[in-house]
Amino acid sequence: MGLAEVLPTQERLVPIRELEEMRERSLRDPEGFWSEVAGQLHWFKSWERVLEWKPPFARWFVGGLINASFNALDRHIKTWRRNKVALIWEGEPGDSRTLTYYQLYREVNRFASALKKLGIEKGDVVAIYMPMIPEAVVAMLAAARIGAVHTVIFSGFGPGGLAERINDSEARVLITADGFYRRGREICLKAIADEALAKCPSVEYVIVVGRIGKRDTPMQAGRDFWWHEVVEGAENYVEPTPVESTHPLFILYTSGTTGKPKGVVHSTGGYLVGVYATMKWVFDIRDEDVYWCTADIGWITGHSYIVYGPLLHGAAVVMYEGAPDYPKPDRWWSIVEKYGVTIFYTAPTAIRMLMKYGDGWVARHDLCTLRILGTVGEPLNPEAWMWYYRAVGRERCPIVDTWWQTETGAHMISPAPGISLVPLKPGSVTLPLPGVDAEVVLEDGKPAPPKQRGYLVIRRPWPSMLMTLHRDPERYKQTYWSRFVGWYFTGDYALKDEDGYFWILGRADEVLKISGHRIGTMELESALVKHSAVAEAAVIGRPHPVKGEEAVAFIVLRDGFTPSEKLRKDIEDYIRKTIGSIAVPGLILFVSKLPKTRSGKIMRRVIKAIVTESEIGDLSTLEDEASVDEVKKAVEEFKRIAEEAMEK
């Protein structure tokens, strides 16, 4: 299937050779190429050197002075975009707000003034623990305006996760809310924050947004202040602080399953250049677009493609507070229709979840405004790709399946409708973007032959790459640059096909070793969801006395299918035919829901802990506690049946 068959606006695109020429030029003369891109932003002082590369540490646009807030706001209010809508926000209960670029500019200036009055200065860390409300965007841009470093902490984290991140960053101020709405419930965020703050000596001030109007919110005198109070006497204008291109814009902690979270540090100049370029290339962003990324502000996708990328281009951005299927499975589609969304960017997990409800919920809405669909977070299996293309895009919208990471800062491998007309292959992220020297290599570092699995690496620096890990440069070197010296190790398995297209196969550490054979959990999950009865699947491994390890699959069925031994056997036969006997799960269990984070990722570590009867660990990011009970019940039921069989 080619992109030419699905794009309704082909006249805006150029042949694929344009992408090839652009990539070739970017790799032949990276400094000249990135200078041209950087020149499209506003710099208070131009750089003296494009790249200072002392492996594995890169410094981009050295000597340049820039400000993220100025580029996201001030540039636009001096043009016709002054009164263009910047943010379209909808709360889960149905309340809504809009902010024009000028209104957002005023809000950011006033909050920046409030931070300065509290003594926050350039280089200080501002922690942001907030739901998906406009004030979260305001807080990020206000911190950037005065040269402070923001660290946004996902609002789904509990007291322990919050305290750990605040303490590691040594934040002086915490910005939070009294609460927010999720699936009709009020989540009291301030109470969670207070529990964490008891262990956070660096925090001097707490600023609280009154989202749910909780009047009995505990406020500590001298430390806690309401947002509306601190901005009452604030200045309407704060001069943006020019910061060095290499000055940290933010620290964002990865939520690893083991060990201490990694504080990924991103620069200001290089990061802005990366997200500015990729927003244009991947989403073909235009002034008339209404753009919606469904990610949470607490993750890198929210930073890069809700806040900085879109606002640098003066886009109209939709933000939504609640769950994708609340109160009904068509909540997202109703928002697309209501606001005339043209570009929609979401996670494969969410697509598979909504897919299980069937086409009817999508079909009842007019989605004619959509022109580009995107995915992020994990590989998008071909079955879900086709449903997304057919049911949501109505067979006319290209799908930009993007590969990138918290550490890369911006898209790395993706279709790029903003540059070129390229054929699409369901399940493939297609080709590297300009400036990205990606390769799939074997254990010895040699390029893998076509269709052979290997490690995905990036062989040269790029502007939006992380500078280091906060207070841990040795871990930075060991984690990302020691596996293949001089190359960035992504930690992902991938392969390239005969056309040079990249296919992401999942994390290299998510591999089962069954009777000496290595089977990727993502490979097995992708095969399972191709079965006509399967809506979602999560695969984990458990010890096996003979095989070493065996796969255990938890399956959510599509509407119209019910669990049965016959269906279980049918799924086993399907895997036997599609992958091979070695990949057939030793155990298939049916559940109505899988444990997921609020951002939509399946919590496989929780499932594995239940199966192996080990410590479950932190559940602060869990979307629905009932999903854990579902897994527990399925495991207990299997044990009961197995014991009865042994007794007989």
State which percent range the strand residues make up: 15-25%
Radius of gyration: 24 Å
Q: What's the CATH topology name of the domain at 96-241? A: Rossmann fold
User: What's the overall geometry?
Assistant: globular
CATH class of the domain at 96-241: Alpha Beta
Structure summary:
The protein has 648 residues and is of the alpha/beta class.
Q: What do you see in this structure?
A:
The chain is of the alpha/beta class and 648 residues long. Among the domains are: 96-241, 3-Layer(aba) Sandwich (Rossmann fold), CATH 3.40.50; 510-647, 2-Layer Sandwich (GMP Synthetase, Chain A, domain 3). Helix content is 32%, strand content 22%. It is built from 19 helices and 30 strands. The strands form nine sheets. The chain has a seven-stranded mixed β-sheet, sandwiched between helices. A hairpin with a 5-residue loop joins β24 (488-496) and β25 (502-507). The longest helix is centred in the last third of the chain and has 23 residues, at 625-647. The model is unreliable at 1-15 (pLDDT under 50).
Notable traits:
single chain; 648 residues; alpha/beta; Rossmann fold; GMP Synthetase, Chain A, domain 3; 7-stranded mixed sheet; 5-stranded parallel sheet; 19 helices; globular; disordered N terminus
Layout of secondary structure:
Layout: H1 16-28, H2 30-38, E1 49-54, E2 57-62, E3 65-66, H3 68-77, E4 85-90, E5 96-100, H4 101-117, E6 125-128, H5 134-145, E7 149-152, H6 159-169, E8 173-177, E9 180-182, E10 185-187, H7 189-197, E11 205-209, E12 224-226, H8 227-230, E13 243-244, E14 248-253, E15 263-267, H9 269-283, E16 290-293, H10 300-312, E17 316-320, H11 331-339, E18 343-346, H12 348-355, H13 360-363, E19 372-375, H14 382-392, E20 399-401, E21 438-441, E22 454-458, E23 468-469, H15 473-481, E24 488-496, E25 502-507, E26 511-514, E27 517-520, H16 521-528, E28 534-544, E29 548-557, H17 565-578, E30 587-590, H18 604-612, H19 625-647
Parallel strand pairs: 4-17, 6-7, 6-8, 8-11, 11-12, 16-17, 16-18, 18-19, 19-20, 29-30
Antiparallel strand pairs: 1-2, 3-13, 4-5, 9-10, 14-15, 15-23, 21-22, 22-24, 24-25, 26-27, 28-29
Helix pairs in contact: 1-2, 3-4, 3-5, 3-10, 4-5, 6-7, 9-10, 12-14, 18-19
